[in-house]
Amino acid sequence: MRRVLGFVLLALLAACGTLTPPTSTPTPAPVSGTEPPPAPLTATPSTVQALRLWLPPQFDPNAETPAASLLKARLDAFAAAHPGLALEIRIKGSEMGPSLLETLSITRSAAPDVLPDLVALSRADLEAAALKGLVHPLTGLTDLQSDPNWYPYARQLGQVQNTPYGLPFSGDVLAVAYRPDDFDSPPYTWQDLFAERRSLAVSSGDPNSYLQLSLYLSAGSPLLDDANHPMLDEATLVRVLRELDAGNLAAVGSEEAAWSAFVDGRADLAVTWVSNFILVPPPDSVLMPLPGLEGTPFTLATGWVWALAGSNPQTDALTLELAEWLVADEFLSEWNLAMGTLPPRPTALEASDPRGQLNSISQSAQILPTNDLILSVGPIFQVAMGRMLNGEQAEVVAKEAVESLK
């Protein structure tokens, strides 16, 4: 029996010695000078890359509006050009809950891994977010901000303390609405506008006081002293008050009420945001830049930008590619027109502005002062305007207004 077992064992060992170990099929080396084969069009779960976008409700791409359809198509086209990419859209901020900025701050502290890679922020929110470290500077990541094809205000729109933080995609500018049939020739100055005692609807309930701010800044007067404390120049403030007092001012409670007074024909003129005019312009009405105190058009602007807020630097390049895709001329032109806002790039405005009126308004615009400055001096301008409307002398009102900041 032992001989038989030994024989069988020897036979098995001999047979094993003749087996060939399994081998894998070699992968051909790429030919020099050619690109490697493209990634498969259908991504597996392990290869999907996600980019998170946060938008406020008015920019919801799934809303049933022409502007929403344009944005959705633009986002879909970007995703289609990047196989394996998933765009996660979240709508943040509402009247009933925390704002988009508040949600961004909360998420940064509680769950940084789910921060948005790209977020749409208003100018005021961009400034606050940058100062709180909620968004990343774009320095060294893109040179698009140095492109000359931006309006002056738009280049300022994306910067905070001279550092680029955002790519502008939508603008809004203050302008004067009037009816050309009321004038023998186009008006250029406040004197032209106020001739024949034409009435200007103004908001006496606006603590931001954008009209007064625009006139004050048009003279080149500062809002900060040498120690960076808020200040007002008394002589310039007197000029502002006198300029407005020369008109027939129709005081109402809000910006919305001032615009309604013009639309309804209860006022001859109105200072309004361009966005109020574009979608439903009143019949026989046009816009012009705000005249400055020195005879040169000067007005204030605000708007929206795309900013980076994600916690993973490895997604920055793709996120910026998406942001640049969303500020291309062909998209900005159509989308802003549908939204009733202004493209921040001159070449994007051309198609919808054949007479160049919106271009001249945009060229004259400068960015709003900082949030803190508006909070400091806006209410003072408001009180000064109210006192002037009650018949007080501009010199007395201006002197006390300046003293209140000291």
Structural class: alpha/beta
Number of helices: 16
CATH architectural arrangement of the largest domain:
3-Layer(aba) Sandwich
The percentage of residues in β strands lies in 15-25%
Shape, per Cα inertia axes: globular
The first-level CATH class of the largest domain is given as Alpha Beta
Q: Helicity range of the residues?
A: 25-40%
Rg on CA atoms, Å: 30 Å
Uncertain residue segments? 1-46
Mean pLDDT: 88
What is the β-strand count? 12
**CATH fold group of the largest domain:** D-Maltodextrin-Binding Protein, domain 2
Instruction: Give the topology string: H per helix, E per strand.
Output: HEHEHEHHEEEHEHHEHEHEEHHHHEHH
Task: Characterize the biggest β-sheet.
Answer: 10 strands, mixed
Layout of strands and helices, then pairs:
Layout: H1 2-16, E1 49-55, H2 66-80, E2 85-91, H3 100-110, E3 118-122, H4 123-131, H5 152-157, E4 159-160, E5 163-164, E6 166-178, H6 190-194, E7 199-203, H7 210-218, H8 234-245, E8 248-252, H9 255-263, E9 269-273, H10 274-278, E10 286-288, E11 299-308, H11 316-325, H12 329-339, H13 346-349, H14 357-363, E12 365-367, H15 371-389, H16 394-403
Parallel strand pairs: 1-2, 1-3, 7-8, 7-9, 11-12
Antiparallel strand pairs: 3-11, 4-5, 6-9, 6-10, 6-11
Can you tell me about this structure?
- By secondary structure, the chain is of the alpha/beta class.
- The chain folds into two domains: 46-171 and 304-358, 3-Layer(aba) Sandwich (D-Maltodextrin-Binding Protein, domain 2), CATH 3.40.190.10; 173-301 and 369-403, 3-Layer(aba) Sandwich (D-Maltodextrin-Binding Protein, domain 2), CATH 3.40.190.
- The chain has 16 helices and twelve strands.
- Strands 1, 2, 3, 6, 7, 8, 9, 10, 11 and 12 form a ten-stranded mixed sheet that branches. The protein has a two-stranded antiparallel ribbon with strand order 4-5.
- Helix 2 links the parallel strand 1 and strand 2.
- Helix 2 (66-80) runs antiparallel to helix 12 (329-339) and helix 8 (234-245) packs across helix 16 (394-403).
